[in-house]
Design a protein that fits this description.
It is a single chain. By secondary structure, the protein is of the alpha+beta class. It has a domain of 34 residues. It has 1 helix and 4 strands, in the order H-E-E-E-E. A hairpin with a 6-residue loop joins strand 1 and strand 2.
Amino acid sequence: MGPLPKRKHSRARRNKRRSHDALTPNHLVICESCGEYHVAHRVCPKCGTYKGETVIEVED
């Protein structure tokens, strides 16, 4: 028989352990071309530009 806990861990102890598991929101920046927000270091989904150059053609 393997090791088992002697007592139930409290809700506070469980929640303290989970305090570091929260997800952080994506870092949003303003697009230089269209002014919309997009995720940093990614192509703008609104206008298709990255670092001032058109990378993909976006259909309106």
